[in-house]
Prior knowledge:
Largest sheet: 9 strands, mixed
Oligomer: single chain
Low-confidence stretches: 1-31
Helix content: 25-40%
Amino acid sequence: MDAEKVKIPLFPNRDVSDIPHPNKVMPVTAGRGAGQLAAVLENHDVWMVLQSITYSKLALRLLATGVYSKASVVTYSNLAETIGDAFAPTFFDENYLVMPKEFWQLVCSEDLIKYIMYIADLFDCDDYAKLFSALIAAFFLVNTAGIAYGRVYDQNGNLLGLHAFNVVPVLDGNAIVWYVIEPQTGQMAQMKDDGTAIMDGYVYAIKLATFG
């Protein structure tokens, strides 16, 4: 996040001093030494490797448990109808694989990218959202992890700043419901008809989203 954007405080009651969590913001400056940059890159590399291993194993497990058999292929136009006026979508594919809730719950429970170090401007909220979307497509061949852009408010309705996160359609019986996913925490919450969702007391308001 930059300019008018703000960093949403995560896990306010959790001690994260011993793990490389995104709460540990390391401002990037021209004067940063090679050792500091190496530490940042090592953090990113380690968690990306661990995430790749974890998601590879999860993909095989999901195939074995038949979760994919519960999915449904939906055209972009039909998917748009389920969004209504909640937010403005942009679709790059003709058809989309809509997964059941258990798929997203498992994916979020195995989400390790939340431990990648947050770096203002260079690796912030939009990068977490893009990475989550790309990993879901690469490891699970699911193209419905949308990248959402909007605003976040506190419990009193005060604007905290602009924010990027993820939004996904979820198959619920014969219906499709929408969920917001915060890739920096691995949490998910059902979206209301007005395009908002509440997680940890924060109100996520989607303005637009892209699906590729």
